[in-house]
Write a structure and sequence with these properties.
Blueprint: H1 6-13, H2 17-27, E1 33-34, E2 40-41, H3 44-58, H4 63-66, H5 71-82, H6 92-105, H7 109-123, H8 125-145, H9 151-170, E3 181-185, H10 194-205, E4 209-214, H11 219-229, E5 233-238, H12 244-257, E6 262-267, E7 281-283, H13 290-294
Parallel strand pairs: 3-4, 3-5, 5-6, 6-7
Antiparallel strand pairs: 1-2
Helix pairs in contact: 3-5, 3-6, 6-7, 6-8, 7-8, 8-9, 9-10
């Protein structure tokens, strides 16, 4: 069982510790447990309840009203909110992000699948990825970096996200040939492939040839693939922290080894030497911005 201090509860839920204590005393909203040494802590179920209480507050419910609700009544209230347009304080996208956060913290894959499938039905796959899954990944990443959640929860979410994207690609059956060919890869120190997987989906949906090499691709392996496939474009991302010297050298190697290809990159802008990019290298602000670019590529 995962344990949270009240400060960790505050950072994950967004509810101030002082407010949590007031709600405990006034409404018996949460009941902290205690260790053998009498230190207060909260578990996943209490964190889930607090996040759900926050959703209700943002949508016009009073804490005096919420404090009298049973757990199943709280869940029913949230369901009713998500079936209609929420108030201006909390967009429907934000509600789904919070619900998926609860499922992630609890390692609840069936609950995650059900909620994310509802997102797709309501918004479509692409908006669900760009406006719900990406913000959730960013939030989980920030909580992981500040040690507010267990790394296993971050890995759980990443694995689900990759499963969703692989399934989406498998469901595509592109027809015809494209005037453009892409090779997608990550440098040999990079593992975070979700943005690249989404770009692969966008290419396949557009009917553009895409060869996905995946994470940690050595330059020599990339050379082999380029020699066989003869792509028009290379696409990769950089998110792992590297020195400025490494970054400059890597971009220089790419430009020199692949002068006939247009090279597209997205990721952490701090890692990308914008002033030193060669003429055949272009920076993309986000993976989603790639969507606008590929609609202008030639398809025959």
């Amino acid at each position: 069982m995962l344990k949270y201090t009240i400060k960790e509860l505050e950072k994950v839920s967004g509810v101030k510790a002082h407010t949590i204590r007031i709600w405990e005393k006034r409404y018996n909203l949460l009941t902290p447990r205690r260790t053998d040494t009498n230190i207060r802590y909260y578990d996943n179920a209490q964190l889930k309840k607090l996040i759900n209480v926050g959703i209700l507050l943002e949508n016009g419910r009073k804490i005096s009203y919420i404090g009298n609700l049973k757990e199943e009544q709280i869940l029913a209230e949230i369901k009713s909110i998500m079936e209609v347009e929420p108030t201006q304080k909390s967009t429907l996208h934000e509600l789904y992000v919070k619900e998926l956060l609860v499922h992630t913290i609890n390692f609840d894959k069936p609950g995650f699948d059900k909620t994310f499938d509802a997102c797709i039905l309501k918004f479509g796959l692409e908006l669900s990825i760009e406006q719900i899954l990406y913000p959730l990944l960013n939030q989980i990443g920030q909580l992981w970096l500040s040690d507010e959640i267990n790394p296993a929860q971050e890995h759980f979410l990443s694995a689900i996200a990759k499963q969703k994207l692989f399934a989406a690609v498998d469901g595509l059956r592109p027809e015809g040939n494209s005037g453009s060919k892409f090779i997608l890869f990550l440098p040999d120190n990079e593992d975070h492939e979700i943005g690249l997987l989404y770009a692969n989906y966008l290419l396949m949906k557009q009917g553009i040839s895409s060869t996905y090499l995946g994470p940690r691709t050595p330059l020599e392996h990339l050379k082999t693939a380029v020699g066989v496939i003869q792509p028009s474009h290379l696409l990769f991302s950089m998110t792992a922290h590297v020195s400025e010297e490494y970054s400059l050298a890597y971009f220089s190697e790419l430009s020199q080894n692949f002068p006939d290809q247009k090279i597209l990159v997205f990721g952490n802008i701090k890692l990308i030497p914008m002033d030193a990019l060669a003429a055949n290298i272009m920076m993309l602000p986000t993976p989603a911005s790639f969507k606008d670019k590929i609609t202008k590529l030639p398809i025959i």
